[in-house]
Amino acid sequence: MTYIVKINPAISRYEVPDLREVLGWDRRDNDYPTLFERCNFWAGVRDEKEKLIAFGYISGMGLQHGYMEDILVHPDYQCQGIGVALVRELLRESERFGLGIITLTHDQKYLNFYRNCGFTHCSGGVWVRK
Question: Could you tell me if 60 and 41 are in contact, meaning their C-beta atoms sit under 8 angstroms apart?
Fold first, then answer.
């Protein structure tokens, strides 16, 4: 089956938390729907039964720089090219939106995935509230 990445699709308040949970991530229920009001745009992929199987978004000030977050693909649909399609569509939308720089942080095990999506590896830093 061919899966279609859609920009800013309607997503109910529990669909992303449910997807996060199946991946073993915090649900972060309180982030939704506020995230949709504050991020620049998001993308989603649904299966043939209309279940959300992939999600990601770009946040930032919307000037030149954006930050890609929460690239999620349901475990049953991983390694089928859906994640790459999702990221590439988010990058295309970033260009249409006028963003020239997109950054992200990721676990080292995903380095090749993001390189395949067009990212260049670089060093950086992260501050986390204690």
Answer: no
Q: Residue 58: name the closest of 20, 6, 103 by CA.
A: 103
**Which H or E run contains 116?**
helix 111-116
What's the pTM value of the predicted model, to 2 decimals?
0.91
Between residues 82 and 1, the one the model is more confident about = 82
How far is the C-alpha of 115 from the C-alpha of 106, rounded, in Å?
Answer: 12
Q: Measuring CA to CA, which residue among 31, 27, 5 is closest to residue 17? A: 27
Q: What pLDDT score does 1 carry?
A: 76
d(CA 16, CA 63): 26
Phi-psi map region of 81: left, alpha, beta (phi>0 left; psi -120 to 50 alpha): left
Q: Is 83 helix (H, G, I), strand (E, B) or coil?
A: helix
Q: Cα torsion for 62, 43, 22, 116, to the nearest 10°?
A: -90
Structure tokens at 115: 């390189």
Both tokens of 42, joined, read: 């998001």
